[in-house]
Amino acid sequence: MDKIRYFGDRISQLIGALDFQKEPPELYDPIAYTMNQGGKRLRPLLTLLACDLFGGNIEKALYPALSIEVFHNFTLVHDDIMDKAPLRRGKETVFKKWNPDIAILAGDTMFALAYTYALKTDAEIVPEILTVFSKAAIEVCEGQQYDMNFEQLQSVSIEDYINMIRLKTAVLLGASLEIGAICARANTEDVRNLYNFGIELGIAFQLKDDLLDVYGDTETFGKFKGGDIAANKKTYLFLKALEKAGPEQRDQLQYWFSQPSDRDVELKINSVKSIFDSIGVQAITEEIMTGYFERSLGFLSRVEAKTEQKKDLVEFATRLFNRTH
After folding, report:
1. How many domains does the chain contain in total?
2. 23 burial class (0-12, 13-18, 19+ CB within 10 angstroms)?
3. Which of 101, 124, 147 is the last residue of a domain?
């Protein structure tokens, strides 16, 4: 069994052993529902891979890795309310299956649980781990607020969008790697390079997510296809299309992105996608994604570890970059 699969199994075992059979069930059932859906679980995997990279004991990193996964799932539960998203991982979102109030409270509990799990490691590194964790948690919330702000703004720059996804998505990947390295007592410079590896990889990851939202298959992607267009999300694809569009195409894009999310959804998605296709947005996005991915590997190359020791992280990053769902 390869290392990535083994680490994935350890994380799944730990999550499977969590006891959510508690009272009141209206609070804990949605948490169990969320945590048992699976998902990529890439953040805790990155934590364990980072710990292993420096010869650390992954048992010391398991609960910090779990804390990141619980926190990540908390953000999804709340994000789905804000985005009014009906599907997550091919299943009803928590607020759709129960209601928004239950989803808010379940998410709040998951946030608290994440901190509880982060404490379960060597006491001397807990303050450093919580510092990294708290900084990332705040930045993720900043990114989500920017994301919501962009829905109301007439003009958003590509630079602003990249900064938003750095905060909303990439910093948690960076923190996952940073915490794993801390658990292994890595030196400061290596920790920083590994964090930056995660930031660049995280931006590439989110750009791929944006691309799959439009061009992915609903059955394998596990979310509503075209959901970003329906919700008037100013993704990189939209912003680049707006930049490259002729006057008529620009007017059409602005028209569709001024319409309510529930109005002529299928026509809206198809119309916007047609403009994306005519401009060649898919290829443009793939090119910038490749740039971020290559920069991420550049930061990894600076980490003081043998090439053989880095191969699992390189393999995992490559899987993320080439994923189809």
Report:
1. 2
2. exposed
3. 124
According to the model, what pLDDT value does residue 178 have? Answer: 98
C-beta separation of 114 from 70 below 8 A: yes
Cβ contacts of 93 within 8 Å, gap of 6 or more: 77, 80, 81, 85, 86, 87, 103
Tokens standing for residue 22: 């508690």
- Choosing from 102, 124, 146, the residue where a domain stops is 124
Residue 248 domain-assigned (yes or no): yes
Helix (H) or strand (E) holding 242: helix 236-244
Residues 299 and 212 in one domain: yes
CB 86 within 8 A of CB 97: no
Q: Within 10 Å of residue 258's Cβ, how many Cβ atoms? A: 9
Do 276 and 214 belong together in one domain? yes
Residue 175 CA to residue 158 CA, distance in Å, equals 24
Radius of gyration of the chain (CA): 20
Could you tell me if 117 and 176 lie in one domain? no
Structural domain of 178:
169-305
How many Å from the N-terminal Cα to the C-terminal Cα in the chain? 23
The CATH code of the domain that includes 118 is 1.10.600.10
Average pLDDT for consecutive 10-residue bins of the chain (325 residues)?
Answer: 88 96 97 92 96 96 98 96 85 96 98 97 97 98 94 92 98 98 97 98 96 80 74 94 96 92 87 97 97 98 89 94 88
Kindly state the DSSP code that residue 123 receives in the 8-state scheme. Answer: G
Whole-number pLDDT of residue 218: 57
- The structure tokens listed for 292 are 């971020």
